[in-house]
Amino acid sequence: MSRKGNCLDNAPMESFFHTLKVERVHHRVYATRGEARRDLFAYIEGFCNSRRLHSGTGYRSPADMERMAA
């Protein structure tokens, strides 16, 4: 990904990390790196991957999209 001459490869990850920082990181103070890792893992697995509405899917959650596909 993200090679010289192909700057658009990295756009989806840049967007994800921006959203993560805006929604989670900038609103909290973590005492340890381990605490930050646990919190971010819980956020990504518990909310972002299952319940968060995504514009690319017509503002449906990933869980809704899986139910529709089944």
UniProtKB/TrEMBL annotation:
InterPro entries assigned to the protein according to its UniProt record, in alphabetical order: Integrase_cat-core, RNaseH-like_sf, Transposase_IS3/IS150/IS904
Domain Integrase catalytic: 14-66
Pfam families found in the cross-reference section: rve_2
PANTHER family to which the protein is assigned, alphabetical: TRANSPOSASE INSF FOR INSERTION SEQUENCE IS3B-RELATED, TRANSPOSASE INSO FOR INSERTION SEQUENCE ELEMENT IS911B-RELATED
Example of a GO biological process term: DNA integration
Record-given protein name: Integrase core domain-containing protein
